[in-house]
């Protein structure tokens, strides 16, 4: 009854905001002001507990400019703001960090799985440095892009440079989150270097990967953009990804921790993996790393 009353009280028009900035400058010692803040916070918690995931998803992209976490209201329900996600991420990073002992983390996964985006979020939350393996290879090759390396020197040269880069990262750096190339997992020697830290597999369904790649194009992906099989971009991407998966799928299971986007989607009650935010994936990555550490480091 109390929850229902709270939601009814919060029934505003779709364009309504609760902006905590309206309270700025009010007398700090005012009893009425303090009671109003406490009541708003209490009702906010009640309403959040009854929030529908699909409504939270629909307006997730709307930003909250106020650093004091303005609460968005829509169709009578209070929505989680990006500020709430950041709090969860920060708390989870603080829980994991003491057990890492400065070890680096290596994100592995198929092309388009979000390793760079999620890696940057994790690095920032931990206070780590972020490194992109492909970017380091390009810099070592005087700015030659990965696609150009494949075209002019061949995949074997790229793979050698990739192994050299992972070796240097494992020897020279600590407290780094590394985004690896999709094919880094196929060479056993690379696992030797990555297992000096903690490896994390971002497991994304091929259908979702194909949708992402078809949307942005394949020019930067040398193993895909030369495909001449014909068909629409999604079908071409999906077929090629399926072929690549056959040679790499088992190798990804060598990772210390697995982050299944399908599992996260189910846990949050979303309809598909595209509803997930990178921050939610990063939080799950920290949780899986923590599970791995609690079980005992096997490497």
From TrEMBL:
This is shikimate kinase. PANTHER family: SHIKIMATE KINASE, SHIKIMATE KINASE 2, CHLOROPLASTIC. Its cofactor is Mg(2+). SUPFAM superfamilies: P-loop containing nucleoside triphosphate hydrolases. Its EC number is 2.7.1.71. It comes from Brassica oleracea var. oleracea. The keyword Transit peptide applies. One of its GO terms (molecular function) is shikimate kinase activity. Coiled coil: none annotated.
């Amino acid at each position: 009854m109390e929850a229902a009353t709270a939601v009814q009280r919060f029934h505003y028009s779709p364009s309504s905001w609760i902006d905590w900035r309206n309270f700025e400058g009010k007398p700090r010692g005012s009893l009425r002001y303090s009671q109003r803040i406490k009541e708003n916070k209490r009702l906010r918690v009640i309403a959040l507990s009854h929030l529908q995931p699909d409504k939270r998803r629909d307006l997730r992209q709307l930003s909250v400019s106020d650093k004091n976490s303005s609460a968005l209201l829509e169709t009578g329900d209070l929505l989680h703001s990006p500020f709430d996600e950041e709090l969860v991420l920060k708390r989870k990073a603080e829980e994991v960090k003491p057990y890492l002992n400065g070890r680096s983390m290596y994100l592995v996964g198929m092309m388009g799985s979000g390793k760079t985006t999620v890696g940057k979020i994790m690095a920032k939350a931990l206070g780590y440095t972020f490194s992109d393996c492909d970017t380091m290879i390009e810099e070592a090759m005087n700015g030659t892009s990965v696609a150009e390396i494949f075209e002019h020197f061949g995949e074997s040269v790229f793979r050698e440079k990739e192994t050299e880069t992972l070796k240097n990262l494992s020897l020279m750096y600590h407290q780094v989150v590394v985004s690896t190339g999709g094919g880094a997992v196929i060479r056993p020697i690379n696992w030797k270097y990555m297992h000096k830290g903690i490896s994390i597999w971002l497991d994304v369904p091929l259908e979702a990967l194909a949708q992402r790649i078809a949307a942005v194009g394949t020019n930067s992906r040398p193993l895909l953009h030369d495909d001449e099989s014909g068909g629409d971009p999604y079908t071409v991407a999906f077929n090629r990804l399926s072929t690549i998966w056959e040679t790499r799928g088992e190798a990804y299971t060598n990772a210390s921790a697995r982050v299944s986007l399908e599992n996260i989607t189910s846990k949050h009650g979303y309809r598909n993996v595209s509803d997930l935010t990178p921050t939610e994936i990063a939080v799950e990555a920290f949780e899986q790393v923590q599970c791995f550490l609690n079980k005992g480091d096997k490497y």
